[in-house]
Design brief:
Layout: H1 13-25, H2 28-50, H3 52-61, H4 64-113, H5 116-121, H6 124-166, H7 168-215, H8 217-222, H9 226-252, H10 254-278, H11 284-326, E1 337-344, E2 347-350, E3 358-361, E4 367-369, E5 374-381, E6 390-397, E7 402-407, H12 413-420, E8 428-433, E9 436-437, H13 443-448, E10 450-453, E11 462-463, H14 464-469, H15 477-486, H16 490-495, E12 503-504, H17 513-527, E13 531-535, H18 543-557, E14 561-565, H19 569-572, E15 577-582, E16 585-590, H20 592-598, H21 601-612
Helix pairs in contact: 1-11, 2-4, 2-6, 3-4, 3-11, 4-6, 6-7, 6-11, 7-9, 7-10, 7-11, 10-11, 15-17, 20-21
């Protein structure tokens, strides 16, 4: 599957920096305090080194008292530098963790608002990479590079100023060497950033492949696909290696280049300074202090180049994160909401007390009772442009009816249910719920009125009771047990060592597929919804258990509109209406007996299923 986000070069560096500084700006007081302490620490280091000049001159003059005062002053300055350095390192960690907390929180909240198209087009491992690898690179930069970069900049700028104060002639040579250093750093950094972007992209792709392979290990072993998987892994791993080599290759040349240029710079300045001292153009103290500054000048530059690796990786990771945050969330322009209501003397009134009656509160404030009337009016839809799955589909389900969909794989059965709950929006026509276009209903309220059992069950880490309660967060233990009895799950749950407190791990790996599906049905039952959607809800349950479920489901379905996608005759034949789909169209509609009498597509499906059973 193609990734939604890919990058071979920086797309919008300005936007990335703007967003990063916005997050840091949320903690402006802490940020300014860190900057102040870093500045004090850096200036203290510069002043302490500058004190070499008077100390050497006093030493040459033999004035011990003044020499002692100079040493004490230098010691005090360095002590201030040490204390402030300790302070800013501790505050930097706190600030970094606060920023990372905000980024993770916003990213997680935003990802949950993205449409399903994003998850269809982006591998799960790649999504995980945003929260792990990409956030980690930003964390490394904030923890290690932020304060160090400020410190390096102040030291470089301060050192240049002091060098010009001490000897402006020699400083022209130093400035020229600085210029050569920064030109090389700029060249190397530009190429490194390109490869760091590629590296982050390939890390996401590799994570996605590993996650997919590990999840499907049973299938891999059944079909002896280990060799092919290893070959695909090597290909992705090789792509990551090439990107990592390019990124680290350019970045690794920065420090040696800076060190080599600084050595040449120091040698030239030492020779020229010695000549000037012999000619009386500078004093010994100034030359000694000057040479120390020149020698130390390479340190902040080396520090800056080393931190640039973290910064470049962080910018690549931050760019991916902020691109996700820029994605438009799932549209929800609906203004109709779902409320509890009570009916007195034929008048519907909203109530805050939970009742069995639900009502739609329209934008004009009027209430309309939720009945469960669902209609498709000339609906056309496709997951991709120019590839329609449904073509001019019109159907209806009256309140309390059980509607079954049958047809070949790919006929559009699941797509219809996806449009009812607005996982996707129609491209033509409309879906009406109690006469209201579902696009006018707020999504949270629309989905609260629906109970859905998907074909692919998913359980969360926690107890069995917690997983059933997922359908109704405030459900009591009594309601949970009642829902389990309706789904015929209570019997097997009570046979487990901890019963309803049994812990579910790894998406229910400690349960059978059938047991997982029973819990999914119980989860829908506890929600007590007006409309039920069962997408192959009994596909992994044996026939005997299915009969037990149907008895419980019959009472659950009373007064509710139910949509069923299934192939088993026991599930389909008692429906009020069976809709046969083919090539995205409804080709037959009727009861089980009516469709058999027509001897059309359903007749053929029925006899084919009978033979298979």
């Amino acid at each position: 599957m193609a990734r939604t986000i890919s990058s071979k070069k920086p797309k919008n560096l300005g936007f990335t920096l703007h967003m990063l500084f916005r997050y840091m700006g949320r903690h402006l007081a802490l940020l300014l305090l860190v900057a102040l302490l870093v500045t004090v620490s850096s200036v203290a280091g510069l002043l302490g080194t500058y004190m070499i000049r008077p100390i050497v001159n006093e030493l040459a003059g033999g004035n011990r008292h003044t020499l002692l005062l100079g040493v004490l002053e230098a010691g005090g300055i360095f002590l201030v530098g040490v204390v402030t350095a300790y302070g800013y390192t501790q505050l930097t960690v706190r600030m970094a963790q606060k920023v990372l907390f905000d980024i993770r929180r916003d990213l997680f909240a935003h990802v949950q608002k993205l449409p399903l198209r994003f998850f269809d087009a982006t591998p799960h491992g790649d999504v995980m990479s945003y929260f792990t690898n990409d956030v980690d690179t930003v964390a490394d930069a904030l923890n290690n590079s932020f304060s160090m970069t400020i410190q390096s900049f102040i030291q470089i700028a301060g050192t240049l100023v002091i060098l010009y104060v001490l000897n402006w002639r020699l400083s022209l040579v130093v400035t020229l060497c600085y210029l050569v250093m920064f030109l090389y750093i700029r060249y190397s950094g530009r190429h490194s950033k390109k490869y760091y972007d590629r590296q982050q992209k390939h890390i996401g792709a590799l994570d996605g492949y590993i996650e997919e392979t590990v999840t499907g290990q049973k299938v891999v072993k059944v079909f002896n696909h280990e060799a092919e998987n290893l070959a695909a892994f090597r290909e992705k791993n090789e792509a990551l290696r090439r990107a990592g080599t390019g990124a680290q290759g350019y970045a690794a040349t920065m420090v040696p280049a800076v060190v080599s240029i600084s050595y040449v710079n120091y040698a030239i300045v030492a020779v020229l300074g010695g000549i000037m001292a012999m000619q009386g153009l500078t004093d010994v103290g100034s030359l000694a202090s000057y040479l120390v500054f020149v020698r130390q000048a390479a340190a902040p530059i080396n520090q800056f180049t080393q931190q640039s690796n973290f910064l470049l990786a962080a910018l690549a990771g931050a760019e991916r994160i902020f691109e996700v945050l820029r994605m438009a969330p799932e549209p929800d322009e609906g203004g109709v909401t779902l409320v509890h209501a009570e009916e007195r003397d034929g008048v519907l009134r909203e109530t805050e007390v939970p009742t069995k009656t639900w009502a739609w509160r329209k934008t004009d404030g009027t209430l309309q009772k939720l009945c469960g009337d669902v209609r498709f009016a000339d609906v056309t839809f496709g997951y991709r442009a120019n590839h329609p799955i449904l073509q001019h589909v019109s159907l209806y389900a009256k309140p309390g009816q059980k509607i079954a969909f049958v047809g070949a794989t790919g006929a559009g059965k699941t797509t219809i249910t996806n449009l009812i709950n607005r996982f996707y929006d129609v491209q033509g026509g409309s879906v009406l719920y109690d006469g209201i276009d579902v696009r006018d209903i707020r999504k949270d309220d629309l989905r609260r009125s629906l109970g859905i059992v998907l074909q692919d069950t998913h359980l969360f880490t926690g107890t069995i009771a917690d997983n059933i309660r997922f359908g109704k967060p405030g459900a009591t233990m009594e309601e949970i047990e009642q829902a389990a009895r309706i789904a015929s799950a209570d019997s097997f749950i009570r046979r487990l060592p901890q019963g309803y407190d049994t812990f579910v791990t790894a998406d229910g790996a400690n349960l059978s597929q059938g047991q997982r599906q029973l819990l999914a049905i119980a989860r829908a039952a506890v929600a007590d919804p007006p409309v039920l959607i069962l997408d192959e809800a009994t596909s992994s349950i044996d026939t005997r258990t299915e009969r037990l479920i149907e008895k419980g489901m019959d009472s659950l379905m009373q007064g509710r509109t139910v949509f069923v996608i299934a192939h088993r005759l026991s599930t389909v034949r008692n429906a009020n209406a069976i809709l046969v789909l083919a090539h995205g169209r409804v080709v037959e509609r009727g009861t089980h007996d009516e469709l058999l009498a027509q001897k059309g597509m359903y007749y053929k499906l029925y006899h084919g299923m009978f033979e298979l059973s």
